Structure formats: C-alpha cells, structure tokens
Amino acid sequence: MRRFACWLLDSGPVLVLAVIAGAGSFTHIRDTAADHGQTGWMSWAIAVCIDLTCVMAARERQRDKKTGRLRRGLISWPVLVLSGGVVLSLAANLAQAVPTVWGWITAATPAGALLVAVSMLERRAASPRPEPCPAPVPALEADEDTTPVETEDGPAPALLDYARRVADEHHAKHGKPITRDALRVRLGISDQLASTLIQAF
Fold first, then answer.
1. What is the pLDDT along the chain (201 residues), one digit of tens a residue?
2. Which of 23, 32, 74, 117 could cross-link with 17 by S-S, CB 3.0 to 4.6 Å?
3. How many CA atoms lie within 13 A of 34 on its CB side?
4. Where is the composition biased (Acidic residues) (predicted)?
5. Can you list the alpha helix ranges (DSSP code H) found in 36-152?
6. Are residues 109 and 27 in the same domain?
C-alpha cells in the first residue's frame, strides 16, 4: 500500500495532466473533423486515431532505444509518425481557435501539454528503476574472524558466488551487466571490493 501511495504521488500529476490534455486535444480534433464533413462516430474515430498514434509512436521510440534499433543520425519511423501526429493534433487545435495570437496559444495548449506528458512518461520509462533491497549477504553476516570477506587470494568464495548470482539476476532483469556502483549498493561493500568482484566475474 505504501509503495502504491509513493507511486501515486510521483506519477499521479503526470497522469492527470495526460488525461486532461488528451481530452482537450481529443475534443478539438473531433470538432475539426465534424466541421469538415466527418460527422458522427467517424469524428470520434479520427480523434482517437491521432491521439493514440502519438502515444503509440512515443512508446515504440522508447522500445527502439532499449533494443538498440535507434541509430545516431537517422530519423526512425516512430519519430516520423510521432511528428506527423503532433502536427495533425496542433493543426486541429489551431483550426478551432479564434484567429488571434492568444486564441492560437490557448487552443494549442492541450496538444502541447499532451506531448509534454507523453514525453515525461517516456523519460520515466527510460530511467533505471531502483532495485529492491536484497537479502543480507551470508558472508557479511558471519563473524569476520571466522568468515572473512576477503582472503589473501581475493574475495571470499561465498561472497564471490553470491555476487555472481546478484550480477546474473541484474543482467536477466535489465539486459545489461551490473555496474560497480550497483553491485556495491546491493552488497553493502566498499568501492574497491566491488571493483575486485567485477573483475573476478
């Protein structure tokens, strides 16, 4: 329950912004479509298609980053789709505006806010999530005189085995090797020992 409350406080404002901005943008697109002959359910379908295309393209762009399909210097298909959706959304919002500077600014606000909200959610999805606190390391719980963390030949075998398991779990979960800092935090050890363990893998 506490974890859900923290998530709600952290992500709630962004989600509320996304819903409100999406509703405003949706209404402008629907009204523009209806004004130009696409009446009834078709105007609703057009509004849904444009707004959901923007969200889908943003998520696909994030997926390309995670899988390494996004190459430097190249404009990917999701980016083109997202750009087209944003242009259509802005055009529909501006078409409903009073032809003044402030009319255009206020009418464009829902589309701009929706784009900001989607980009915020995309940015949060890209950032690494904090890992749960691990179980204590058996080798560190024992008496230091009887079960040392390090020996003359390097890290204690029990600690090295545990560190390997932690590294394997991290790689399976995130798709990339564990860093020295992440291993240090997970095991509660020094930077030097974490570096030694990384080199020993």
1. 667 666 667 667 777 777 887 788 888 889 999 989 888 899 999 988 988 888 888 888 877 777 766 666 567 888 888 888 888 888 888 888 888 888 888 888 887 887 777 777 767 666 555 444 444 444 444 444 444 455 656 677 788 888 888 888 888 888 888 888 888 888 888 888 888 887 877
2. 117
3. 13
4. 141-153
5. 41-67, 77-95, 101-126, 138-141
6. yes
Which residue, of 101, 126, 151, is where some domain finishes? 126
Claim to verify: residue 55 and residue 110 sit in the same structural domain: yes
CA Rg value for the chain: 25
pTM: 0.50
| Amino acid identity for residue 44 in this structure | W
143 shares its domain with 168: yes
Length of the chain in residues, anyone? 201
> For residue 133, is it within any domain?
no
B/e letters for 23-43, b = 16+ CB within 10 Å, e = fewer, are ebbbebbbbbbbeeebeeeeb
CA distance 171 to 182: 12
d(CA 127, CA 174): 11
**Residue carrying structure tokens 């298609």:** 49
For 100-161, where are the E strands, in sequence order? 150-151, 154-155
**Domain total in the chain:** 2
- Contact yes or no for 197/183 (Cβ under 8 A): yes
